[in-house]
Amino acid sequence: MRLPFFVYGTLLPGEINHDLFLRGRTGAEEPARLNGAVLYDGPGYPYAVEERGGVVHGELVTALPQEYEELLVALDRLEEYAPGAPRNLYERVEREVIRDGGDTAARDHTAVRAWVYVAAPAVAARLRSRGKLIESGDWRVR
């Protein structure tokens, strides 16, 4: 299934990994939000932790068709994610994100299924107990 990616940290435009991983590989990048999650500050990068009532702000990234498979592998590696691996820092999950694009007069708030890298369960538990919450849910204004 070729889903777009919801990015919320170092893959955002202007952040360190955007140019390294996404430049020239995307067909679209648009503002979006993930409801039902909060953002924690990690060591130089954030973690989205699923939590009712929270909102994480980021971008919905659609890969160019010819770049999709290679980008998926590259992002899994960046996020230290391997399906079923017990030591994952992140899990790649399919979630609904809300587009925040368009002009202010006619916002397009459609829901889209996307891949999201969220904190793996052990990491999420540690963050909930002693992590630094980014209250705005926006890595860019932390």
Key features?
five-stranded mixed barrel, 6 strands, Hypothetical upf0131 protein ytfp, globular, 142 residues, single chain, alpha+beta, GGCT-like
Write a structural description.
The chain is an alpha+beta fold and 142 residues long. The protein has one domain (5-137): Hypothetical upf0131 protein ytfp (Roll). It is built from three helices and six strands. It has a five-stranded mixed β-barrel. β2 (26-41) and β3 (46-63) form a beta hairpin. The longest helix is centred in the middle third of the chain and has 11 residues, at 68-78. It is globular. The model has no long low-confidence stretch (mean pLDDT 93).
Rg (C-alpha, Å): 14 Å
CATH fold title: Hypothetical upf0131 protein ytfp
The percentage helix is 10-25%
Average pLDDT works out at 93
Q: At the first level of CATH, what is the class?
A: Alpha Beta
**What is the number of helices?**
3
User: What fraction strand?
Assistant: 35-45%
In this structure, how is the largest beta sheet organized? 5 strands, mixed, barrel
Domain Gamma-glutamylcyclotransferase AIG2-like: 5-140
InterPro entries: AIG2-like_dom, GGCT-like, GGCT-like_sf
Protein name: Gamma-glutamylcyclotransferase
